[in-house]
Amino acid sequence: QVQLVESGGGLVQAGGSLRLSCAASGSIFVSDIMGWYRQAPGKQRELVATITSGGSTNYADSVKGRFTISRDNAKNTVYLQMNSLKPEDTAVYYCNTKRPVLPGYNYYWGQGTQVTVSS
Length: 119
Description:
Layout: E1 2-7, E2 10-13, E3 18-26, E4 33-39, E5 46-51, E6 57-59, E7 67-72, E8 77-82, E9 91-101, E10 104-109, E11 113-118
Parallel strand pairs: 2-11
Antiparallel strand pairs: 1-3, 3-8, 4-5, 4-9, 5-6, 7-8, 9-10, 9-11
């Protein structure tokens, strides 16, 4: 089992920055892919960014060049630096761990943290 606790959300003006943190506890595997998803009111949850333990990253097109995901394997913590925030970035942001378990994956989720960007 993996427990994920997010922090760092809040209210910010358009153009501002926020940094989200996600601390993982429990059984953490080197094969785990960690990431951030978000869900805006009335919309489906969507991928924001993911990162492997080796540092390979993947971003949604909507956040490329503005958001940066990073990971501290020693601390079992993943971060999301969000710059040049836009009102459309407003959502609940969820930390996620995706664990390869043949033949598929197990997914673990945090409780979410609210990010609100005012115009």
